[in-house]
Amino acid sequence: MVSRSHLFTHFVAFLTVAVWGSTFVFTKMLLQAGLTPAQIFTFRFLIAYVLLLAFSMRKQHQWFCSSWKDETLMVALGITGGSLYFLTENAAMLFTTATNTSLIVCSCPLFAMLLVAIVYRHSEHITKVQALGSIIACIGMAVVVLNGHFVLHLSPLGDLLAFGACLCWAVYSLLMKKALEEYPTLFITRKVFIYGLITIIPYYILSPQEASIFSSSILQLFNPSILFNLLFLGIVASLLCYLIWNWVISRLGAVVATNWVYFNPITTILFAWWLLHEQITVWFLLGTILILTGMYLSDKKKK
Questions:
Q1: One-character DSSP codes across the chain
Q2: What is the pTM of this model?
Q3: Percentage of residues in the chain with pLDDT exceeding 70?
Q4: What is the pLDDT of residues 80-90, one digit of tens each?
Q5: How high is the pLDDT of residue 81?
Q6: 247 and 122 in contact (C-beta within 8 Å)?
Q7: What region, left, alpha or beta, does residue 48 occupy, with left being phi > 0 and alpha being psi -120 to 50 degrees?
Q8: CB-CB neighbours of 218 under 10 Å
Q9: 189 pLDDT more than 60
Q10: Residue 195 and residue 64: Cα distance in Å, rounded?
């Protein structure tokens, strides 16, 4: 029988993905207000880091890892789960369609499964049933995203950037598994935020126009609507969700946890149905059934 704690972990994973699926509304409103994708990322990670740092300093505070090798691992987490992931995903939208981006980015569980199978082939064996479940869930995700319109518009640059974001999150899940073996979730998450912020600096240096308008965008924080959206992205979607997601990986493993990414387009469509009154189609229902079936199979352990 599946334990209550195991089911609870899956439920928490679902809630986390549901929150991430809702962020498109808040991000879109910030973009319409004049903020750029890089600025939105910087503000949300800065809010999350400051609050997490303040909480951490209430008790005995550890600044660095026990070795430079581990510190390098944290830098890699900040890049793959922070700066590079968000930059490639947002930039992909400028060169390719939202459908292409969703399909490619949300297929990251397949790449995570392959990476785990290669790197941890001796300690975390992936069964054929689990692999089949992940593939079925991926097909379900594609059905949801395509929504009956099986036409893709290829854009090499945009699709490559989307694939880069996909690979970033897959690598992040793989590296997180290793980091959680040595350090607590709170410490790792704080490292992800600070190194995400540090590694976004070269982008501002290489984009003088972006850097020049960054200071003026600070004045927009006095706008209550903009401030509310940023606080939601910083506190809920970043601070809380990253902490919870890293805990979920420690409980379910990188493969099963990352498979919940398949639910991202489902929650996005549900929010669009709720807030924007968009129609729920039979393709959405079929894709959801496939994703649920795939998730069930991917969580089955070898007896």
A1: ---HHHHHHHHHHHHHHHHHHHHHHHHHHHHHTT--HHHHHHHHHHHHHHHHHHHHTTS----S-SSHHHHHHHHHHHIIIIIHHHHHHHHHHHHS-HHHHHHHHTTHHHHHHHHHHHHTTTTSPPPHHHHHHHHHHHHHHHHHHHTT-------HHHHHHHHHHHHHHHHHHHHHHHHTTTS-HHHHHHHHHHHHHHTTHHHHHH-HHHHHHHHHHHGGGGSHHHHHHHHIIIIIIIIIHHHHHHHHHHHH-HHHHHGGGGGHHHHHHHHHHHHS-PPPPHHHHHHHHHHHHHHHHHTPPP-
A2: 0.80
A3: 83
A4: 999 999 888 87
A5: 92
A6: no
A7: alpha
A8: 10
A9: yes
A10: 12
CA distance to 67, 128, 257, per residue, from 108 (Å): 30, 18, 11
Residue 104's identity, in one-letter code, is I
Give the pLDDT confidence of 246-255 residue by residue, as tens digits.
Answer: 999 888 887 7
The contacts of residue 1 (CB under 8 Å, 6+ apart) are none
For 182, other C-beta atoms within 10 Å of its C-beta total 13
Closest CA relative to residue 41, chosen from 77, 100, 85 = 85
Amino acid at 117: A
Q: Report residue 65 as tokens.
A: 């890892």
- Check pLDDT > 90 for residue 220: no
Is there a contact between 213 and 97 (Cβ–Cβ < 8 Å)? no
